[in-house]
Design a protein that fits this description.
By secondary structure, this protein is mostly helical. Helix content is 71%, strand content 0%. The protein folds into 2 domains: 132 residues, no CATH class; 91 residues, no CATH class. Helix 1 runs parallel beside helix 5 and helix 6 runs antiparallel to helix 7. It starts with a helix and ends in a 13-residue tail after the last helix.
Length: 248
């Protein structure tokens, strides 16, 4: 609730101060920013963010905790779908807030558009509330890159019968090493890069490498079908078994 309140508060302030969408479109045209108001512009570039955050949030412990706490499988699926659609306007609000910065500021503020709107256009009390809510959201998503590195073994463990500890560890080590390698590159250190930074190719390559190591090691080690079958059945990720309703 704090995050939603903060996002809506900053969005309304930014859009009101900017004068609406028309002045934003005019400022973009004057600055030569083609496709600034086109939601499909730059799709290939933004695919990297979709893959990264999608993989990261699919394995978030707090997400699975809430799904597991649902009374029935039907409730769990329904709330997951509703949450998906709820995030669409929430993220659209954040995007439009950033776009309003083109009118509000001559140059991109050092701390970002959202922080600048909070500092420059909100009263101190409302600004403090918004800053706390948005800071919490930023901190909660800083682990997305790391989570992407361990995406393959955690998801594969629910469906791959040959899955076991050795291949999971090998896959995570390779995935995390790849993530750290890219962090060194983004920090300006000398390691060579054979892929475009912050691109879909970069993310797909890392996930594919982790998956390849997972499968290769699993084929070279002895499986424990009894243990993995029991885990897969208990997790019931594919919904093949009905879960009895909780009592009380």
């Amino acid at each position: 609730m704090l995050l939603v309140l903060s996002a809506v508060l900053v969005f309304i302030t930014a859009l009101t101060r900017a004068g609406g969408l028309a002045p934003i479109a005019a400022a973009a045209a004057a600055a030569g920013k083609d496709g600034y108001m086109d939601i499909t512009s730059g799709t290939s570039r933004y695919a990297m963010y979709i893959i990264t955050f999608g993989c990261a949030w699919m394995i978030q412990a707090n997400v699975w905790q809430r799904i597991s706490a649902a009374r029935t499988d039907r409730d769990a699926r329904k709330m997951t779908v509703l949450s998906f659609f709820a995030y669409i306007p929430l993220y659209l609000i954040v995007v439009l807030t950033g776009m309003a910065g083109l009118v509000l500021f001559l140059t991109l503020p050092q701390g970002g558009v959202v922080t600048a709107v909070v500092v420059n256009y909100l009263p101190p009390v409302l600004g403090a509330i918004a800053f706390v809510g948005i800071s919490a959201a930023v901190m909660s998503t800083m682990d997305s890159l790391i989570n992407t590195g361990v995406f393959v073994p955690l998801v594969a463990g629910f469906v791959w019968r040959r899955g076991n500890a050795p291949e999971a560890m090998a896959s995570m080590v390779v995935g995390l090493s790849y993530c750290l390698y890219n962090l060194l590159i983004s920090a300006g250190l000398p390691p060579p890069s054979f892929w475009a930074a912050q691109s879909a190719q970069q993310v797909i390559l890392g996930v594919s490498l982790s998956a390849a190591v997972y499968v290769a090691v699993s084929l070279c080690t002895k499986p424990d079908y009894e243990k993995t079958d029991a885990f897969i059945a208990a997790a019931n990720l594919l919904g093949r078994q009905k879960r009895p309703p909780q009592q009380g």
